[in-house]
Amino acid sequence: YLGPGGRLLRPQELRLHVFHGGVEPGLRKVVWRYLLNIFPPDLTGQERLAHLRRKSREYAALKSALAARASPAELAAVAAAVRKDVVRTDRAHPYFGGPEEGHPHLAALQALLTAFALGHPRLSYCQGMSDVAAPLLAVLDDEAQAFLCFC
Question: Rounded to an integer, what distance in angstroms lies between the CA atom of residue 41 and that of residue 26?
């Protein structure tokens, strides 16, 4: 589905292919970013990399701004609500397995869901959001990209 320079040529055909036949696990990291509209249309491979770097910087700035803007009580309440689900994430999955304390993937899941809740105060955090965000994080293996896909 990619043409010269890495541009996606037939987005509708890609969507139909995925709808009818799924995506093999090795391609999910690439395909999900298209399906979840991370990339604007017509980007080349190099432009996609630059786009991801820019979005990663924007996400880091957003997390900092949201944490600075929230009151300590609000931040603690949101973090506690998110934490209840994060520690229950599928611990049998290799990506989330191992000791809870200091686990980098659980910390990334906590951070992205907390950022989402703080950035969307009317919705905040709802039980089960971690069940949607966890596979995104496990496949993409990038907190900023998983946040974008989750949003």
Answer: 23
